[in-house]
Design brief:
This protein is α/β, with parallel strands linked by helices. It contains five helices and four strands, in the order βαβαβαβαα. The relative contact order is 0.21. This is 6,7-dimethyl-8-ribityllumazine synthase. It catalyses: (2S)-2-hydroxy-3-oxobutyl phosphate + 5-amino-6-(D-ribitylamino)uracil = 6,7-dimethyl-8-(1-D-ribityl)lumazine + phosphate + 2 H2O + H(+).
């Protein structure tokens, strides 16, 4: 586990990328802070990007909402998944965390659209506060910086759907 945020990119991006955030409502004190920190950071480092936010009941619903967004006509350039699972006395939190992780990774590989995974599994509220609200380990800002890096990388590789040429071929209307 890292103990500090990665550095902010040196240059502000001019990309007009579309970024989707899917965030859980459960543990809203913390997930609201993740969303706010991620969007604030995105507005700073990707000021020309459009950001859409979809809220789902809990972490378990994040993958299905993400799949729907990634299969829509308006695919984002990157999707950020934000949620918080506080480990309890049973294995439920670990099972949800593993399921979400595997599902998000599969979505990213299947769609070739980067999915930034910040659905956090923590032991207690102290860890949740440090990662969601605090400034030193803030995973919302880290997610935004990772999204920036992936947008720039995919753009440099020519992999953004904006870079794909659309057919200009005309078909006869009476064919």
């Amino acid at each position: 586990m890292s103990t500090a945020l990665p550095p902010r990119p040196r240059q502000v991006s001019s990309s007009k990328a579309h970024i989707s955030i899917v965030a859980s409502i459960y543990n809203s004190e913390f997930t609201d802070a993740l969303v706010e920190n991620a969007t604030d950071e995105l507005k700073t480092i990707l000021p020309h990007a459009t950001i859409s936010v979809a809220r789902v009941p809990g972490a378990f619903e994040i993958p299905v909402a993400s799949a729907a967004i990634l299969s829509s006509d308006q695919k984002p350039n990157v999707l950020i998944a934000l949620g918080l699972i506080i480990r309890g006395k049973t294995q439920h939190g670990d099972l949800v965390g593993e399921s979400v992780t595997n599902s998000l990774q599969q979505l990213a590989c299947d769609t070739k659209i980067p999915v930034i995974h910040e659905v956090l599994l923590v032991d207690d509220e102290k860890q949740a506060y440090a990662r969601c609200v605090g400034s030193e380990l803030n995973r919302g800002r880290e997610a935004a910086r990772s999204a920036h890096t992936m947008i720039e990388l995919f753009s440099a590789l020519g992999l953004h759907q904006d870079n794909k040429k659309k057919s200009t071929r005309s078909y006869p209307s009476n064919a």
